[in-house]
Amino acid sequence: MIDDLLRRLGIRDGHSGACAGTWIDRPAGEPITSINPSTGDPIASVVSASIADYDTAVDRAIDAFHRWRTVPPPHRGEIVRQIGNALRQHKEDLGLLVSLEVGKIRSEGRGEVQEMIDMADFAVGLSRQLYGLTIATERPDHRMFEQWLPLGPVGILTAFNFPVAVWAWNAMIAAVCGNSMIWKPSPQAPLTSIAVQHLVNQVMGQTEYDGVFALAIGGAELGARMADDERLPLVSATGSVAMGKAIAPRIASRLGRSLLELGGNNAIIVTPKANLDLALRAVAFAAVGTAGQRCTTLRRLIIHESIAEGFFDRLASAYRSFPIGNPCDDEAVLVGPLISEAAVKAMLDAVEAAKDQGGEVVCGGRRVDRPGFFVEPTLIRAKAAMPIVQQETFAPILYGMTYTDLDEAIALHNDVAEGLSSAIFTDDLRESERFLSAQGSDCGIANVNIGTSGAEIGGAFGGEKATGGGREAGSDSWKAYMRRQTCTVNFGSTLPLAQGVQFPITPEG
Ligand code: NAD
Asked: Ligand 1: which residue has its CA nearest to atom 40?
């Protein structure tokens, strides 16, 4: 099954992980083995990009940028449309590869590819809407307006847990904005990036713009090189807060731009006025979906003390009913594996730390006895003062805490370093509006009667505080990928100066 799948997607064992349109023939980087987290077995080995390979790919991306930036945006959109269609044609296989390589359940594997397709469609429409403002000018016979122009080659660093969708958030928009780009995927998911790049190459190879989309597979060392690379005016980086703290100062020191999409420590408040059936479903999906490996995964449940006991009981029985297993073998599986042995260890360590700090494991907390990297969805009754509650453990651990009044709940909610996604469950307008007010959630995403995960692409996605402040995907996120130019045109025959400044000069000097 695996060999056939890789062949259909144009991947061969020992594939080169560096390319800019055409594959670099003899990459010199270290081999990286892609592991199937559902079995622990190797899937294939990829030759990563050396720094020299990366430099060659960026040179090609710069060359491509010089041609691509002259293409009218709607024509760029037409090429992005073809990329979207190529992804559509291969949705089933690509979705299966996502499940194979990072362990997502099948509907989420397909959903990840759908998100790429949606981003392509969104970008096609956007290619006719890269508009600026016309601004009233104080000077007679003048016109002032702003326009948005391409930036240059954009660096894109992605995390393992959305191995291709996050690339699409960046790449589809960056492309219609007139940029070329170089993508460094997670070394834990090299095959999905090769498969996507292969499809993109097939489309771009039919155009004069081969090289607009480049790929360089490697680890943190390559990411650091991108952060330092003055040829990249923008580096868009998705991953842990630690990664953001490592690269942001490097990018800033060369006065480059960074767009950071970092970790979350997301919470839901459930009030006594909530529809508890709705809340239960939302909490379960947000906390356990993707085996707790989403940046928007629910990590903290803040529930009113009057309803907590019954809710914890119902949640625990839902947790025990979830089918755990290899998503590639069984469509009914709802909980796949963690990404690696290290992730299992981090999860078990967090459970032990929670117990040491006074937490009570309501259900789960153990490794599942089978090959691969499986753990039980875990609910821990906790106190906000426990240090472990402040930590994003990338696993299905939910800390359940109680509150007595809403102001206390909102204070608990905001009392973490990150500020990504948040939600309240209530049917009381006063409570929901308070949560959405300036005294409410401090996150980039705030929902009412919807869980913290599973955002649509039409909105701007991202978070505040230690989540990094970046926004990607919909709304006006495209502006991050362009440079704004304010233009003033004098169509008169005098030269009035702004603010009434006088500077008379006789024509003779
Ligand atoms: P990670 O930080 O380990 O790696 C992310 C990317 O950064 C990878 O490409 C990696 O090779 C690179 N990298 C890591 N350290 C680096 C360094 N010091 N210098 C340069 N590059 C470096 O993250 P991960 O384990 O792949 O993904 C999980 C994390 O990503 C979680 O914290 C999750 O919340 C976060 N995440 C955030 C979003 C978002 O949109 N906010 C989306 C997905 C994942």
From this structure: 261
pLDDT in tens, 334-375: 999 999 999 999 999 999 999 999 999 999 999 999 999 999
Q: Which CATH superfamily is domain 2-262+468-486 in?
A: Aldehyde Dehydrogenase; Chain A, domain 1 (3.40.605.10)
What is d(CA 109, CA 114) in angstroms, rounded to the nearest whole number?
9
For residue 289, give the DSSP letter: G
Query: How many other β-carbons are positioned within 10 Å of the β-carbon of residue 270?
Result: 27
Q: How far apart are CA 390 and CA 338, in angstroms?
A: 21
In sequence order, which ranges of 254-402 are alpha helices (DSSP H)?
276-288, 308-321, 341-356
Q: Structure tokens of 366?
A: 């153990």
Q: In one letter, which amino acid is 112? A: E
Is there an atom of ligand 1 within 6 Å of 469 CB?
A: no
Task: Count how many residues are written for the chain.
Answer: 509
Ligand 1 centre from 241 Cα, in Å?
Answer: 8
Q: Which helix (H) or strand (E) holds 286?
A: helix 276-288
Count Cβ neighbours within 10 Å for each residue of 90-100 and write b for 16 or more, e otherwise: bbebbbbbbbb
Angle at which helices 106-126 and 165-176 pack, to 10 degrees? Answer: 10
Q: State the distance from the centre of ligand 1 to the C-alpha of 422, rounded, in angstroms.
A: 21
Question: pTM score, two decimals?
Answer: 0.97
The answer on pLDDT for 493 being more than 70 is yes
Helices (H) and strands (E) in the chain, counts: 14, 24
Q: Is the CB of residue 219 below 6 angstroms from any atom belonging to ligand 1?
A: yes
The label of the residue with tokens 């005098």 reads: 494
Burial of 331 (0-12, 13-18, 19+ CB in 10 A): exposed
The domain covering 266-457 belongs, at the CATH homologous superfamily level, to: Aldehyde Dehydrogenase; Chain A, domain 2 (3.40.309.10)
